[in-house]
Design a protein that fits this description.
- The protein is an all-alpha fold.
- It is built from three helices and no strands.
- It has two domains: 47 residues; 36 residues.
- The chain starts with 13 loop residues before the first helix and ends with a helix.
Amino acid sequence: MNHWGYGGHWFGAWHWVWMGLWWLFLIAVVVAVVWGVVGWRRQWALPPGQAQLPQDESAEDILHKRYARGEIEREEYEEKLEVLRRQRKD
């Protein structure tokens, strides 16, 4: 005697439904993992709100912008500017 379920088939038609749902679940998990990894890599690729710097932007330009945004104080700005100018002369 066969004990697989109703009508001699394993779960009958529900077998195909559950198998389809299982594949949909696995695909959703893979998509979620890929989406998470891509998002995580984008988050850590560059600091927040900062686009890739143009190649022609000098160190002095960056220093000027940092001072203008208030990221550094006047003393630090002047010290770093002097260091950059000394390095350029050498």
